[in-house]
Design a protein that fits this description.
two-stranded antiparallel ribbon, about 190 residues
Length: about 190
């Protein structure tokens, strides 16, 4: 009898631990991307205030994600900064941390146009006016999921509209791809 009770108790603990850790792990990974995209948008806003323009060069803007990043960060269509290499002043993004075995998604698979029809990088900036409402920079982060799908988020310095008509505030990360299905369904 004691073995049955102990087995049931252990099974319940394992079930609870698996469901909460898998759910929590997914949120933790997504929060890395959201937090870094908000930091990138704030860095771009600061850079715009001081320089009067946006930049797709991550070193120039001052954006450096922490080590062990699971996502690759894209500021423009140019080359990426590998995490293990010395700093590249012309890099327009960061690769995922390959030292931790996080793969960087294939560049051809990452979308270049995001919610609201805004493309990656700097657009509609003529340089004549600092208060140009159409001037914006759009940045993204992406990671490859175990099944081969992509998890993509984007942020822009101007508000956007989704296809459904929902407004996305400036500096607010938006989940471009649907989240992966949960491993366990908790009711």
């Amino acid at each position: 009898m004691l073995r049955i009770v102990a087995g049931c108790f252990f099974g319940a603990l394992v079930w609870y631990g698996c469901t909460t850790s898998f759910r929590g792990c997914g949120r933790r990974v997504e929060s890395e991307c959201r937090t870094n995209l908000k930091a990138a948008a704030m860095a771009q806003a600061w850079f715009f205030e001081h320089e009067g323009r946006y930049s797709t060069r991550v070193q120039e803007v001052g954006f450096v994600p922490e080590r062990a990043n699971r996502y690759a960060y894209y500021f423009g269509p140019g080359r990426m900064q590998p995490r293990a290499a010395s700093e590249d002043a012309a890099a327009e993004g960061y690769e995922a941390d390959s030292a931790r075995s996080y793969p960087t998604p294939d560049r051809a698979l990452v979308p270049t146009v995001f919610a609201g029809g805004v493309p990656l990088g700097i657009r509609d900036c003529d340089g004549a006016s600092r208060a140009d409402d159409d001037c914006r920079v759009t940045m993204a982060c992406a990671r490859e999921l175990p099944g081969g799908e992509l998890d993509v988020w984007s942020v822009s310095t101007r508000f956007r509209m989704t296809k459904a008509g929902d407004r996305i505030r400036a500096g607010e990360p938006f989940h471009e791809t649907p989240p992966p299905p949960p491993l366990f369904i908790v009711r």
